[in-house]
Automatic annotation (TrEMBL):
The keyword Kinase applies. This is Deoxynucleoside kinase. It comes from Fodinibius salicampi. SUPFAM superfamilies: P-loop containing nucleoside triphosphate hydrolases (SSF52540). The keyword Nucleus does not apply.
């Protein structure tokens, strides 16, 4: 029997109430790592964003202005498909980054930096607002906050070649947009500062994060 079927927090919660939780955060903050660890702990299925099979990412980092619209449309479509699959399939899920971050953080930043034209941004936003009618927010959004030096260290540690062109200013801008967005985010959220937490290598640090999440899930669903 799957671990989730015995999990004290989720066994009495209906699927409708807690279909999925999501991990949000800047590039290199540790979302994919935490998504995997939470999926294992709760016995839920992880949904990762499209990176290795992404046909635009490498070109985008080479020439952001040329590829910004293409990449944003690709991510939007891929995350919308994931969202639909999570709502349709039986079981519970942990999602690596939300569809809201595409719009509120990445596309907005590219437009503000002049790397996406007004007409492309308006076109993109109009598409998102049509899609938004079919979206359901996560049962809990976990924002993992990390300062830029931590992000840089972790991006370097991961070592994706095409991310070598990411500049400090780009990460700072994204962090500012994240703070603005999380402040306005109207649904259930939990903010975790991870600069001093090594949940990848320390079971104790991971345990502290899981405890915070479990306390919130208990509060929400019991
Ligand atoms: N809290 C942490 N402490 C130490 N190392 C970490 C922590 N979080 C993540 N890492 C390491 O940092 C690197 C980047 O993490 P990860 O790929 O999970 O980030 P991400 O937020 O999913 O990035 P992206 O936005 O690019 O998908 C990995 O090598 C991971 O092992
Ligand atoms: N421009 C842009 N828009 C997005 O919606 C988006 N979502 C993720 N990413 C980039 C960040 C990492 O390099 C890599 C993995 O997260 O993909 C994005 N880039």
């Amino acid at each position: 029997m799957a671990e989730s079927e015995h999990h004290p927090i989720t066994e009495q919660v209906s699927d409708d109430e807690l279909k999925f939780i999501s991990v949000a955060g800047n590039i290199g903050a540790g979302k994919s790592s935490l998504t995997g660890l939470l999926a294992k702990h709760f016995g839920w299925e992880p949904f990762y964003e499209s990176v290795d099979d992404n046909p635009y990412l490498s070109d985008f980092y080479d020439d952001m202005r040329r590829w910004s619209f293409n990449l944003q449309i690709y991510f939007l479509s891929s995350r919308f498909r994931h969202q639909k699959q999570m709502l349709q399939r039986p079981g519970r899920f942990v999602q690596d980054r939300t569809i809201y971050e595409d719009v509120e953080i990445f596309a907005k930043n590219l437009h503000e930096m002049g790397l996406m034209s007004d007409r492309d941004f308006e076109n993109y936003q109009a598409l998102f607002s049509e899609m938004a009618h079919y979206l359901k927010p996560p049962g809990l959004l976990i924002y993992i906050r990390a300062q830029v030096p931590t992000l840089v260290k972790q991006i370097q540690q991961r070592g994706r070649d095409y991310e070598n062109t990411i500049r400090i200013e780009y990460l700072e801008r994204l962090n500012r947009l994240y703070e603005d967005w999380i402040d306005r985010y109207p649904h259930e959220k939990l903010i975790i500062d991870t600069d001093d937490l090594d949940f990848v290598n320390s079971n104790e640090d991971l345990g502290r994060i899981i405890e915070l999440i479990e306390q919130r899930l208990f509060g929400l669903f019991n």
